[in-house]
Design a protein that fits this description.
The structure holds 2 protein chains of 2 kinds.
Chain A lengths: L2 E6 L2 E6 L6 H9 L17 E4 L2 E4 L13 E3 L12 H8 L9 H14 L5 H8 L9 H21 L1
Parallel strand pairs in A: 1-5
Antiparallel strand pairs in A: 1-2, 3-4, 3-5
Helix pairs in contact in A: 2-5, 3-4
Chain B lengths: L21 E2 L12 E2 L6 E4 L2 E3 L5 E5 L8 H13 L6 E5 L16 H28 L6 E4 L2 E4 L5 E3 H8 L28 H5 L15 E6 L7 E6 L1 H4 L4 E11 L2 E10 L2 H8 L3 E5 L9 H12 L4 E6 L2 H7 L3 E8 L11 E6 L5 E5 L4 H12 L6 E5 L13 H13 L3 E4 L2 H7 L6 E9 L5 E10 L2 H6 L9 H6 L2 H4 L5 E8 L14 H18 L4 H8 L4 H16 L7 E10 L2 E12 L2 E12 L6 H20 L5 E2 L2 E2 L17 E6 L17 H13 L15
Parallel strand pairs in B: 5-6, 10-20, 18-19, 22-23, 26-29
Antiparallel strand pairs in B: 1-2, 3-4, 4-5, 7-8, 8-9, 10-13, 11-14, 12-13, 15-23, 16-21, 17-18, 17-20, 21-22, 24-25, 25-26, 27-28
Helix pairs in contact in B: 1-2, 2-3, 9-10, 15-19
Classes of the chains: A alpha+beta, B alpha+beta.
Chain lengths: 161, 720
Amino acid sequence: MPKYNLTVNKKKYQIEAEADMPLLWAIRDLVGLKGTKYGCGMAMCGACTIHIDGNATRSCSMPLSALKGKEKITTIEGVGSPATLHAVQEAWIAEQVPQCGYCQSGQIMSAVALLAETPNPTDEDIDAYMSGNICRCGTYDRIRKAIKSAASSQTKVGMNK
Amino acid sequence: MSVVNNRRDFLKISGLASAGLILGIPGLNAAQTIVKLDGVAAALELNPFVMISPSGQITLVNSRPDMGQGSYQAVPSIIAEELEVSLDKINIIPSDGNAQFGSQQSGGSSTVRGFWENLRKAGATAKEMLIQAAANKWKVSPADCYAEDGKVYNKNTRASFTYGELVTDASKLEVPTEPKLKEVSEFKILGKYAKRLDVPAKVTGEAVFGIDIVVPNMLYAVTIHAPSVQGKLVSFNDVKAKAVKGVKHVLTTDHSYPGGKTKAVAVVADNYWAALKASKLLEIVWDNSQITGSINSDQYFADMEAASKKPGVRAEETGDFDAMFAASENTLEGLYETPFLSHAAIEPVNATAHVKADGSVEVWAPIQGPDGALEETAAQLGIDKSKVKINPTLLGGSFGRKAFMNFMAEAIDLSKQVQAPVKVIWPREEDMAQGPFRPAMMSKMRGIIGRGNSLAAFSHQAIGESIQGQHWNGIQAFRADDWIAGELSMENHKYGFGVHHLSYSRVKTAIPILWWRSVYASNFAWGQECFIDEMAHKAGKDPLKARKELLRNSPRDIKVLDKLESMLASYPPLPTGHARGIAMFRSFSSMSASAVEVAKVDGEIKIVKVTSIIDCGLFVNPDMVKAQTEGNIVMGLTAAIKGGITFNDGKCDQTNFNTYEVMRLQEMPIVDIHIMENQEKPGGVGEPGLPPIAPALGNAIFNLTGVRLRRLPIDLTDVG
């Protein structure tokens, strides 16, 4: 079986897996990070969203063979640290976004990527960027509010620098 | 349930305390995000729900699995209120299905309303025992002591003991049978805003759902089922599947569907991807020839329509509706229709089981009821319940689906066969296409407008398959389904019609059905509430005022409508090209009323704003009530405007979120939610907000376009 070098959350892993194994299952079952979720397996729900070199990617539809080995992969476990949560995670807690919580890793990863690209998103930006992430519990209203509050807190931090 | 029992042998170390892996949410004073506890420190059990260790660690049991509805916090909150401990200083662990916790089924919006009294007693009992233990130490009367924030204080000396210092003595005392409960005005936790303890772990990826369970040496399985659901397995070719690296076994497993059993084919591998990939290479022959009843949704709808032309089985009759209808000139009727729906929780059904060499079994699964799981597992393996250990996990959504545990039975069967721990995860395609589904139903509505334009007489004929009937063959032909009869009774809707008729026509189908968030209320509120609107318009009355007239003997419901009216009046005037509709429905002992505002934009209907009110009596956490009501708006709108489940040629047409769409963020309207505050008995919260959403939308579309829609789902791009 082919071997792959992955850099996940700044840590290096060597895994052995079939070339067509989607990154999702490599992260969950071989690397052992369970925060990234399986929902649909066809990039329709967004539960598996991670960052590859900062870009939001649906890991369920990205085979290992598509990776070159130099990519920096970030999952929900690496987006902040337990001591210092990311501003988006803080906003998610402040707005009490999650209900069941299952889709929220993917929602947060999409929101972090959105704010990295567009620090002050409009309603239309949020709608467009977040439309790939389904929440069956229906937390959309709170997601919108949390993204806006994270955006304004990030802007404040930026101004303080 | 008997929370309080007079045991004489009180020095009992809790059975839960010795468990190896406990999934719990520790208090915020511990590491905030760890959700695996290696057993709770040896604790003394003051009653099944309250464990306190001599070192002072307090552990409360949540007996109702959390699928997002907030029971993880609600149950301990009710106990903690009376126990006088703050939530940030406790550990929360789930119950394991054993009988001392009473019914442990999350469902029917029953947790808070069903356990309010008993859980408070569990907390109050433990508190009284701790106070008595302190009083004994100080040689004073318990009346000279009080409990606050995990300590008992001596009123006269201000001396105090922590609960940990008292628990050994307290556990030897008689259990009080009638503990004194607090007055509502004394509540510190109940009814107050609180941040949920499970949220931090849900934003860091550390929350453990069923799908995340890891057991050493575990294998992964995919199970493939008959597309017709009930089909019999004839043969399968596994040559290609077995050639996939990592595949260990291809075998059959017993599989149950509502009302029956068949076989499924399982691929077991050392990683999930191998099992998934191999499962697609299976060549399986199924036989549908033994199936009775239609596995074609069009046929089922045709059967329901035919049934609507014949009288149903009478459930309730006040006056002689049929005679009055025949004799009246001012009558109206309409046939309303709702489709099959998938629960489509984002976490597909899954379970992990380990049937061990000594015949015992351990199960980890996202299930709605550990007590049912315990019973079913013991029965499946023919073993004593003492040999079964159920570990309920967080559920990644459920909406009713994970209360039907056929996926768990597969994991157990496969673990037994391959003699290793096995985790079964249904691929999304199996999760969606196998159901069981929210049943499709019809409502034949008839009404009579009386003298003075009164809404005089009302008839509802509920038509479709019965959940109880399909699952347990529990419906006799001459009786109406009592779940439906109760939901649509005058006693429930409280509309004071002088003449009222309710009947039920069972139409069978082989398409599997199940309770789905708010159960039949999600179907029949559509017919009931749109038709009330039809009658009001026909009588030339404002639909809200017409409802108030009908509810003249139900002041509590009138208050809900008054509040809705005042909220709507407080908004800016509706812009031109906008319209609003309202609906209300009582389910699970709570009333919810909604108003939906729609507009026509570029020829399409846009849902602009949803206003919802819930009257659920006393509640635990207003923010959780609000969150559930928001969720019900989204799920109610999805049910109204997105495609349903259909079956053709003996199989489900929808298999994933590309063919079964659910509402997405960009479609989310503005929401405004109000919770009625009163001291009525607690009602349900997780479901009652859903039923009024679709009819409020239908009524709004009528007000906007003049088109009366009677069939769901609504295509917003193609109305009037």
